[in-house]
What we know:
The chain has 410 residues and is an alpha+beta fold.
Amino acid sequence: MKDISLRMAWRNLWRHGRRTWLTVGAMIFSNTLLVFSISLQFGSYEMMIDNSLQAYSGHLQLQHPRYLDEPKMRYALPDVADSAERLRDELGLTSISARAAGFALASSNERSYGLQIFGVDAKHEPLVSTLPGLIKQGRYLTPGASAEIVIGSVLARNLKVEPGDELSLLGSGFDDSFAAGVVRVVGIFESGIADLDRSVAQINLGYFQDVFAMQRRGHSIVIRASNIDAVEELQTRVATLLSDEKQVALRHWDDLQPGLKQAIQADMASAWFMYIVLIVLVAFSVLNTQLMSVLERTREFGTMMALGLKPSRLARLVILETGMMTGLGLLLGITLGALITWYVSLVGFSYPGMAEMAVKFNLPERMYPAISLISLTLGPGIVAFGSLLAAIYPALRLNRLLPLEAMRAV
């Protein structure tokens, strides 16, 4: 009986082949678009996360347990440079850099401005941050050199300084003593983020520790993974190495930049609003096709019911027809979407003007879709569910069908 039902359902689909292909075509188009769009969206999120984290915070950080909530100078890690070196050896990873942070008043010959100043390992900082690659004037810090500083373009404009000019720094040290020094501006960076370019400067870690009386202390060890997918494994490895350390907290990028995850969730919600509109349109197309099919076969259904066939069997037949049509659209849509997505994942995708912006901000020139089981099946799966749901109403109409009235229908 199942074999007969399958053959009948397949035959009924192609009574009006053009109408069936139009409905299947709508499914193929929507499934292809959803596969590509969701894959591209996931790929853009990975690029957004990587670019945001590579700009400064890294994927993971080691900090004093209280430093994230209370970023005060006294919540520091001991021997921060040696600890970073030990992690590089034990993890076999070079993209690990030690930092210290403080606040100071920077004064030029004409003006004074407050800023947040970071002591960095100039040798390894370029491996965890894109900031050293954003130098627009001068150069980046020389490893081991003292009394050098790089500042943002907005701060340089406010202080009216250029590479080669001197700045006086005045702040408070780790032991509440006065921290003072004279540094020479060797480079000016431009990140495109006004707050960063206005209020952040970097000096060498050793010089920072001398000026601010840190005595080999620091506030964070920044770790950058090879890609976003490797973060969880790397976090597990680092946590294993630190299992005996009670005064060190391992921070995930979610903790370091909670606003980034919220921005991704907001973008995903707005995108899914448009996806749902597309899915509803396809569902209504299926509803229209199946409803017309049922109405056209009213006399046929009436005759079958008069011969003893139950309405529930006819309803299952309509659902089976929809399932076949949905399966065809699902298979072809996913296949076409996967092929397009695979090709774009090789050559990349770029919006007009994206290359120029990427060069300016030291970012990749193209984005690449992220193909995964979820991106291939999530959208088409919802389309299939919506299509089958749309077939319920035409199927339920058969329960109210009276054989005698149905056979008289024109």
